[in-house]
Write a structure and sequence with these properties.
With about 240 residues, the protein is mainly α. It is about 80% helix and about 0% strand.
């Protein structure tokens, strides 16, 4: 439990770090991309969530019809989770090279040492393809697990707990998503990153839950990506780096 709370707290540190002098210029591009994509997510979420809720409630068995008014908020929350998490993936895919640069700047700020494996602005173009390939590997990892979880929403009875399972899965995936930037700067491949996070799952789930919460709050979600990159870098520096 202490690791959950501690991991959640790194989002607050991320928000503090992204406003530090000397780091703001690295935040500008991720923040712009996040604002544009999540503006679309808010519009899409408002129009699509109502249809999703109606569809999910339409698959309830007759004997659970009396639960309809209790389940509506739960399924609406599920719709928001799906919409905003999906747009979070798109946002990170577009901003991946800039997020790696931001993570490098944050680590340099925290440690006072350069990230040897990084290359600054000069390496940005060179890192675009590897960054995109890393994002695609994460998308495949996500898809192979998200599809079975999505099927749970169609199973009567089980679909009552499916939103909670999806929430836990989303928190874990966001921890993986954002930890990739500081860890990737040190050439840790995807399997090694997951091993590191599994070593202290509570920290990862706490951080991922905080990032997910920020992602779901309109307007605040504009800050979610840069704050999560900064927070994940602080998490790496303070908790995971020494165990590599």
């Amino acid at each position: 439990m202490s690791d959950l709370v501690k991991g959640f707290g790194f989002l607050r540190e991320g928000l503090h770090l992204m406003h530090q002098p000397g780091l703001r210029r690295y935040v500008a591009m991720p923040l712009l991309i996040s604002t544009l994509v999540f503006s679309a997510a808010i519009w899409f979420g408002i129009h699509w969530t109502g249809n999703l809720v109606g569809w999910l409630l339409g698959h309830l068995p007759g004997w659970l019809d009396w639960l309809r008014y209790l389940l509506w908020p739960l399924f609406a929350l599920t719709g928001l989770l799906v919409v905003f998490y999906s747009f979070s993936i798109i946002t990170n895919l577009i901003a991946a090279p800039f997020n790696g640069l931001l993570a490098e700047a944050i680590e340099r700020h925290l440690t006072g040492q350069p990230v040897d494996e990084g290359g600054g602005w000069q390496a940005l173009l060179k890192d675009i393809v590897p960054s995109l390939l890393s994002e695609l590997r994460k998308l495949l990892y996500f898809a192979l697990r998200a599809i079975p979880l999505a099927i749970l929403f169609l199973v009567p009875g089980i679909n009552l707990v499916a939103p909670f399972i999806w929430g836990l899965f989303s928190a874990w995936m966001l921890a993986i998503e954002y930890a990739d930037y500081p860890m990737g700067n040190h050439r840790l491949h995807f399997a090694a990153q997951r091993k590191q996070l599994r070593h202290r799952r509570g920290l990862a789930f706490g951080f991922g839950a905080g990032s997910l919460l920020m992602t779901m709050i309109p307007v605040v979600n504009f800050l979610a990506m840069p704050a999560s990159v900064a927070g994940a870098t602080a998490l790496w520096v303070h908790e995971y780096r020494e165990s590599t």
